[in-house]
Every structure is written in structure tokens, then in C-alpha cells.
Please model this.
Amino acid sequence: MKARTFVDSTVLHAVAGKGGDGSHSFRHEKFVPFGGPDGGDGGRGGHVVLVGDEDTDSLVGVFYEPDRRAPDGGQGLGRYRHGANGADVEIRVPLGTVVSDAETGRELGEVLEHGQRLVVARGGDGGAGNVHFKSSTHQAPEEWKPGKPGEDVRLRLDLKSLADAGLVGFPSAGKSSILRAITRARPKVAAYPFTTLHPILGTVMLPETFSSFRVADIPGIIEGAHEGAGLGFEFMRHIERAKALVLVVDMAAVDGRDPAEDYRTLLRELEARDPALLERPRLVVAAKMDLPGAKERLREFRKETGTAPIEVSVEDRTGLDRLVARLVRIVRPQPRTAGRLPVGAEGGAAAPGLGEAARGAAPAPRRRGAGRGAGRSRAEKTGRESEPGRTPPRPIEGRGENPGATDVVSAETQRFATFFKR
Ligand SMILES: Nc1nc2c(ncn2[C@@H]2O[C@H](COP(=O)(O)OP(=O)(O)OP(=O)(O)O)[C@@H](O)[C@H]2O)c(=O)[nH]1
Ligand SMILES: [Mg+2]
Model:
């Protein structure tokens, strides 16, 4: 079976890490009697995070590895040590990835910028160590809290490519040839229809302004595409967000095609996809102008459609600069910032609507001082969650036996002691 190289819709099962359990430890140190609790908190479980990456152009990585699990947080330790946080699992996705709930279909968020981090499964919080449960009347607390479970979510990822311009045209109109000529993308070009089987993105570099913009080439559109004919309709979503549409019309008119009729068909199919696409700024390209009869057909085409197409020949390399200049005026590419952050260097934000399960179960309020409420059981007062059968707390160590040692007593206690001796 041929390996898939392009995937624009797939599912992801993401399981975040469980929080580490709190520790219940007591301070053990020579000459420090009744050291008190020193159990630290558990670490947070790892998140599963989608990271926008402009160098990735398909969801094929998720397709082949749809189950992602982040590591658990480490257990809290004695001497107030916090458990290690679980490492986040980062999944690089192309810009324009839309995340929705696999079961309900509800849209949860999308990744639009390079380096943007979208937390799709939140790691569980670590549990509190026994140090949090000490109070004046409860000086050797054995309580601690287990870590919270991480979120377990099933998501659907759909890619709606973030191209600035989209090439639309009949099969063999010359779309891929234009993409090859103006970018460094290398889509296959051949003299048969449906050479291009999936969308391909290319970047037009503009060194004089330190900027660039992206162009999408999609499979050819044919009459009746909206009813399922050909391949192109499904892939039209990759040009839906483009700022400019480039309608490529073949002026060589192989097989006796009529360029004006092709143009009208393309408009109809765009409208069937989304009427808003007709409002989008669009350029018309008269392709293959080097071939015989193209000039005459173009004259006819102009008259019939009232458009002013850009004449392009990839063979003679004419009209390409004009096409790029016209696109720049519509797309207005921004200069790239010099010190672009690498993927994963920025802070994370949870997807809106994601992680409600975990957030609903808010962390237990701090229990210190809660014991003053009358009529509550000790378990309620302390928020005790220790489970029977867990390692029993270590006994508090007595004072050291070293005869030469001086007791560690506060100055105030010493003053009291002297007062009572008198
Ligand atoms: N003479 C000439 N031939 C061209 C020109 N542009 C494209 N062609 C030829 O037209 C044929 C189809 O070109 P493609 O770029 O593959 O067309 P496409 O629109 O991407 O086709 P699909 O991917 O099938 O939709 C190829 O044989 C190209 O060599 C041109 O400007 N002049
Ligand atoms: Mg092509």
C-alpha cells in the first residue's frame, strides 16, 4: 500500500499525565526534635499540546500516531520538595488546524500562528503534601492528597490551510506549473488531468521587503464538483481562508474547450462551495499564452467575460512577476521579524472550551484553619484523603542521644525557664 503523505482530517486521542501524589514525610534531623511535617506537593501531569508550525503542511504525523499520552507528574518528596512536573507532549500541526470534539463536533479552537500553543489535554494537578495539613492542634499530620487524573479527550483535527492566495482552475490548466515558477514548491506537472491529488503549499519569497506569502495549489475543479465530480471540491476548504483567489484559465483550449465557459463554471463551483468566495478579491490568469491561438482566444475571453486577465506563460517565463506584484498588493505580506521564536518557545494557552472536565473539579480549598467550623468530623476538617493500606507515616524521631549537644530552644523559652527556676 502506498504510504499517505497528505492528511487534512484525522482524529487524535490525547491523554494528559496524572498529577503526582503529595508526600507525607516528617523532618528527621539530628538535634531537631519533633521536626514536623515536610512532605512536598506532587508535580503536575504533562499536558498534550498542539504547536503551530509553518514548516508542517499536513496532519500526517497525527494520522500515523493518533494516540498521544503525556507522562505523569512526579511524587512529592520530603524536605518540602515538589515532585517533578510531567513533560508536555508537543504535537506539531500545520497552521489552520481546527480542533473539535470528535463526538459532538463542537469546535474547540484552532491553531493559526507559528509557535502558537494550544493545550488540548490538561495534565492533572499534583496532590498536596502533608505540610499543608499542619495546624497548631494538628502538628503531626498524616494526610496528603493524591494527584488529579489528566484529561482524556478524543478530538477531530481538520486542516483549513492558511494560504494567502489560492490557485483555482480546471485540471491541466497550468496551476502547478505556476506554483513551481513562483515558489520553490515542487508539485508534479504533467499533461494529464488530476496530476495534483492533494493541496500543495508554496511560499513566494520577497527578499527586497524581507517578507513572503503562501500560495496553495489544489486539485483541478470540474463541472459538477459540488455534486462530487472530480477531486477538487473537498479540497476547496484549503483556499477558503485565502485573501486572494487566482482563477487560472487555459488559453490553449486543448480538446476544444471554451475558456469563457471554463471561467463561468469555476465561478459557479466557488459559489456552490460558499457564496462568500465570490466576494473575495480575485485575479484571472490567462495561462499558456505561448501556445498558438492563445492571443485570439484571450481577445474573445475578454469580450465575453469583461475581465482583464494577467497573461502568463510558464514556458517563456512571462507575466509571472506581474502576477506576484498584483498578489502582493492584495495580500500585503508583513516583514518577518528577525528573531523568530522556534516552535515551542512561547507560553501556552488552553483552548477555549477545552479542559472543562478538569477545571470543573477545582482544586480543594486550602484546609488550614478549616477546623474551626463546629460539628464537623476530623476528616472533613482536615480534608484527609489518606487511603488505608498506604505507607504509614514514619514515627516522629526523638531527641538525639548526643550528650554534648545543646537543645535548640528559643530565647523566649529560655527566659521562661529561668523565671520558673527562681
Ligand atoms: N506551453 C506551455 N505549457 C504549459 C504551461 N503551463 C503548463 N503547461 C503544461 O500544461 C500541462 C498541465 O500543467 P499542470 O501545471 O500540471 O496543470 P494543473 O492545473 O496543475 O493540472 P492538475 O494538477 O491536473 O489539476 C503540463 O504538461 C504543462 O507542461 C505554459 O505556460 N506553456
Ligand atoms: Mg496540478
Remarks:
- The longest strand covers residues 152-159.
- Residues 259-273 form the longest helix (15 residues).
